[in-house]
Amino acid sequence: MQKAGYWAEIKRDARLLQSALPGPGSRLLAEASSSAPSWASADFSVYRCRDVLECPAGPLGTCASGREGLACSNCKTQTFKTSLGYCSPCSESDLLPFFAALGVLLVGCLVFVRFFSKINLSKQSLTLLTVTVTLGQLLAALQAVGAIRQLSVKWAEPAKSLMDMLMVLNFDFDVLHMSCITGADNPALAFLAQLLAYPFISVSVFVVCFAARFAGQHVKLDAILNVNGVLLLSFNLTLTLAVLMPLQCIRNPNGSSAVSANPGVICWDSDEHWGLVALALFGIMACPVAILALATTVTLRYPGLVASGKGLEALHRYAFLFMRFRRETYFYGVLLLCRNSLVALIPVVLVEVPNLQVVSMGAVLLASAALQARLWPWKTEAANLCDLAMVLMLVVILLAAAPLLNVEEGNKEEILGSIITAALLLMVMVPLGVVAWMFIKRLRPLSRFAVFLCHHKAGAGSLARFIKTILANHSNSRIFLDSDQLEDLALIFDAVRQSSNLVVLLSPELLKRMWCAGEVTTAVENQVPIVPVICDPSYVFPDTDTLAEISSYWTDDQKATLVTFGISMDMILDAYKFLQELPSLSMNTMGTLSEKEDTCITLLDKCHLQKRAFAIKSKDGEAARILVAGNSGDSETLSICMTVQLMVQSELQCQVVTVRSAEEAKPHLDSADFLLVLFTKGLLEDPSFARLMLAVASRGLEYVTLNADAAFQFPTFDFFNTIESEGLPGLPRELGPTLSRVYRGLMTILALPLSPMGSEGILKKQVGEVGLRFIDKKKEIRRSANKLSKAATTDDEPDFMDPVGVHSDKEIQIKIQESL
Questions:
Q1: Architecture of the domain spanning 626-819
Q2: Whose CB among 79, 334, 716, 803 lies 3.0–4.6 Å from 87's, allowing a Cys bridge?
Q3: Which among 86, 18, 23, 29 is positioned nearest to 54, based on CA atoms?
């Protein structure tokens, strides 16, 4: 007699075997599982079945009704599997589940495509985002239940039936009576159907999309890619489980191994299994590996894409990866994919060690819950709470399943004892490691900086901020800027000693500043490599006579301060002479963003710093939504404008461009809705800025203003009267009244504060406040209410780029009046 759940292959006389093979409950059969060689040498061979329903207790070779093959794993021709283990004959009505599922799939694709192609995934309302995210979390949790279902657990009712119902989410198509469609219960065909399930869904999506486009509906390519991306991420766990199925082999009592899902397929010893393995390897490379590689590559490139001005384009194209998470945790999608891969691998890798399956699965889920609670990555509070609750419920399911594990008594205590010992050791070692790390952190010297930026705050403070921003975009190295890192000036020379490079921004007043002199001297005395950067084309090193008079610029107290740090005048003069002999790097501070960034990248090479692998150069792209303007004749103002451009671009993830003239603004006037103006000294007297304002006013862009200079004085009535009567130098006099009107409109906007010399944290908060001026309640960048399209303007458009002007004051007045 054979025991339920096992199947015996008869080799010799059946009567001899009937007396030799133990019956149900026999001790010998239990011992046989751990004594494979004796069974292998017997006159019969025992295999483990999928469950007791397919291989009931009875005479040797007994299978449930309608079943055949090794270990009763297959249904007979023109029969289908039932939930009770036997196979029932197919009829015409048994074809309905398959075609019904096909119809539901096509309708679902149509609804899915219409829904996702009509919305901007990166700019959903929070309510809609919460609904879609929560449904996605539920789908992922149900797929995780499918992975837990594959553990070596003797599931009890009604949990077993509920889990079996969820197997369709894991592309188990037995419920659709697939054997009635194919005519035979073939493991290779079933596995091939699982592999082709997602490609079929993807093709269906493309067919629906192209049908919609043929019907006249405009469906963007990015929308189609996003729909497929959402599906890929939603079924990532299912796809991983499916392709790993042929590799999940369990040991039979006769010493062989068989595929867990198809015990009739002998692992590594049959052509059928090698065929499945070949398909599995192809599926592994095409699905989980390719998905994870794509997601990882895009995620690594994402900060560079945003910083380079391609953020909006990247967000649209890869919205399925980033739109669900907060900006600070954009990388969480990759972490979810890694978690899903581990969840799918555990039943396969630990199939021979069931004791470790539940513990390992629980450890992965608990680590995921802890990481999620720490990062709080989802955009809404409800989505974070829901995700945490579902993961914890999965852990509860594992705790309840632990007593139901199918394990061998012989080594259960040994394995569980090892697990408990490891957990106890970790429980002690982790806090001790934290304590040791705190002591090391306390006793070790100050952290080293890769670059120390030595600069004159008034002459190159904004430039130093810009350089640090660019260097941070292209390197992970720590950059020292006094406004960010320094709280005590007494520590500034220690920071120089602990730096790998000193970058000296040579502006006209730098060498006359006491602290800058001390920084250069400290670097020379401590053999810190120095890279001079000339920030002014007319800059020349002071001659010997000028150097001799350097000390006259400092008070006695300043000289005494240097002496307290061990720095004498002779040391300073020697350091300056050494600095003069070093090869220097030139930066065109009035150049474009790309030109200045190229110089910063060269600076990284000079300092021998490692670059980011996926960093992308910034560029002034097309179709900018926000224009940034300031005093075009001042290099410091230009630097802070470009810094604000990069920060706003990163904050809002849209195209932002710094414009210095009407010529530079012209390509963006059709797409731009806002002009961000930085108030600095001399701004309103700049003729280039005046022509820019006239060009912008003619198109109705909305103004946002920042007070970036304490020396800026808001204009008085006398200033406006002077412009109206005398005009502005460099512009035709007849433009004076129009310019006065535009300037008055600009001054009516409440200017937000901006601290160019403040810390990075202060700047980020201030830029965050500025960003609120550009967005609406849906967190979208709004459109200017006064914006005039190019078609709405006359063909005879005022040429504000010509300093002489070619239009009458009346024509220009009409144009400005339309926008104002």
A1: 3-Layer(aba) Sandwich (3.40)
A2: 79
A3: 86
